Amino acid sequence: MSVIVVGDLVTDVLVAHDGPIQPGSDTDAAITVGGGGQAANTAAWLAHAGHPVTLVAAVGDDTAGQERVAELTAAGVRCAVRAHRGTATGSVVVLAGPHERTMITDRGAALLLDPVDVTSAVSSAGASHLHLSGYPLLHEGSRPGGAAALAAAAGHGLTTSVDAASAAPLRLVGGERFLAWVRDADVLLCNADEADVLAGPGSPAAQAARLTAHVRNVVVKQGAAGATWAARDGSVWSWAGHRVPVLDATGAGDAFAAGLLKAWSSGASPEAALAAGCALGAEAVAKIGARP
Fold first, then answer.
1. For 206-211, which contacts have Cβ atoms below 8 Å and span 24 or more sequence positions?
2. Structural domain boundaries enclosing 188
3. Is residue 292 domain-resident?
4. Residue 195 CB partners (closer than 8 Å, separation 6+)
């Protein structure tokens, strides 16, 4: 039961610092460079979990793009990734401190996600589920590609899931607009900040329940506290997080999505899917970097 993941493939420059950043001066940090992007990370974690997966994305016709595709291919991800001439592969500087992450983003070629590439992959990959990173919908250039992904999945009878991606760009486009774009998706995943934007204040269960007016199922991620799933029929499930030492939270939500999707798309119950997501998320935070 393979999964198509649609979205971003970029270079991550991960800056892991133990203390506060010292503006105008030096801050000690461990700096690593490698593959990133919400969609690509989720695809990598799905492959790590032994689940067949295809990534649809866009990179530049440059060394960085070649390296990013080679990394994923070596990890077992089938890549339907177009290299666009004259455009650089996107990159993200991730400032990862002990309590929060800040991302400074150059979308680059990710803004060129082509509806033709997405539609072709959906029609030829033989998948049962499509997972869309919300980032393509949050930017005007890539929005047609994101919309095409959901339309093609519906046309071919695939189940669908969407990750709400990031609170700040969600605020810029507006929660109501985003929910209209993803209306009737099978699963919407969002963290606490994204849930506040989309559903307003409240408990995770209340927020998830309100959002089922727009999508069939909603999962609100709560970090170390676990996650909550609400279905349109009023059912609610929760699963406590795994308490593990945290080295780096980068990619934890992407790993959670991969664990949940592998279980749910294979027929597991929502509760079992939450457990699988929390387990893979715990594996992610116990290491440095966004990938397995």
1. 208/236, 209/234, 209/236, 211/179
2. 3-20+28-285
3. no
4. 164, 204, 207, 208, 211, 220
| Chain segment 58-103, per-residue pLDDT in tens | 999 999 999 999 999 999 999 999 999 999 999 999 898 776 778 8
Q: How many CB atoms lie within 10 A of CB 155?
A: 11
* Overall domain count for the chain: 1
CATH number (domain holding residue 253) = 3.40.1190.20
Structure-block tokens of residue 247 = 């080295």
Does the residue 291 lie in any domain? no
How far apart (Å, rounded) are the C-alpha atoms in residues 79 and 56? 6
- pLDDT category at 36 given cuts 50, 70, 90 is very high
- Cα 48 to Cα 44, 52, 250, distances in angstroms: 6, 10, 17
In a domain, 248, yes or no: yes
Q: What is the pLDDT of residues 204-231, one digit of tens each?
A: 999 999 999 999 999 999 988 999 999 9
The model's pTM:
0.94
Strand order in the sheet with 159-163: 78-84, 53-60, 3-6, 129-133, 159-163, 187-191, 217-221, 227-231, 236-239
What per-residue confidence (pLDDT) applies to 24?
Answer: 93
